[in-house]
């Protein structure tokens, strides 16, 4: 084992114009949870000269997670890679992405393994090397029930991440944490009552979500029946089911919950992102075509 069994702590850093610029760009973007991954793909990629950046979010309460890459990939191959990673992630604390282990540090595979040791690892042979990934640097952050992991990768043939690049990512980390928390608040501010109910109570049927959203707008059962073109008794049945699923004891309680419930308490925000976030300009300029899955 190499030197990261030693304590690795953030250092005081001189002014770094590139780092300062990435911090400014991140805050100026004012991302929500939908646009944050794309902003981080671009910023982290430039900051540490990574060929590929990944953004992974794990939700402790539900056990759900999402993982996205800064390049377009084959979903089937990525699913195989995730399954292989799950088999081997407990072989070393570096792969476990435990916030307590990482703290405020940026850690590299080279902090823990020599070249020979890494190449012999089952996780390297089954997950990283088949995807052309050789060098890895990671930071881990926690916000409420969520653990967010940002990884930078370099392809086979490139050098490991340097100490200076590690220091830059460590310096960028608190700004990512702040932006992530702000992204939560921006997203919450734009959610409709129907959005809140849908995310917070996935057991509600589509029709129950419709009825609940109209109740949140102050509509009576008769109004809702007219809007949905159904009988009043049908609406009453939906309202009764909503009461049971929300633990609400009246229409006012449903309305209050719909307007105020923290929607991500039980399930993570499994947003989809569009192709416009896929990064790669820096790679194309270097003429490389890394492959990740």
TrEMBL record:
GO terms for molecular function: DNA binding. One of its GO terms (biological process) is regulation of DNA-templated transcription. Coiled coil: none annotated. Pfam families: GerE (PF00196). Signal peptide: none annotated. Residues 197-262 form the HTH luxR-type domain. Keywords: DNA-binding, Transcription, Transcription regulation. The keyword Glycosyltransferase does not apply. It comes from the Bacteria. Gene3D superfamilies: Winged helix-like DNA-binding domain superfamily/Winged helix DNA-binding domain (1.10.10.10). This is HTH luxR-type domain-containing protein. It comes from Starkeya nomas.
